[in-house]
Hints:
Elements lengths: L16 H13 L5 H17 L6 H13 L3 H16 L1
Amino acid sequence: xxxxxxxxxxxxxxxxxxxxxxxxxxxxxxxxxxxxxxxxxxxxxxxxxxxxxxxxxxxxxxxxxxxxxxxxxxxxxxxxxxxxxxxxxx
Length: 90
């Protein structure tokens, strides 16, 4: 997946650019982290999101997942599908 390419997809055109940049940071900065590094990273990102009042509604999450899938490798798309399936179960 090319960094940032998905952010220009028409599927996410109605989503605030700051939210998309927040996700860009989350996705690409976490790519090579170990499990031990992931938890502190996610806590930090979560805290930044709360400080900046960043949250996502169900429609935004669905649109973002669809856009990310379009620009992902088959392996990345499968991970997205699994995450979305977990979300639906909640």
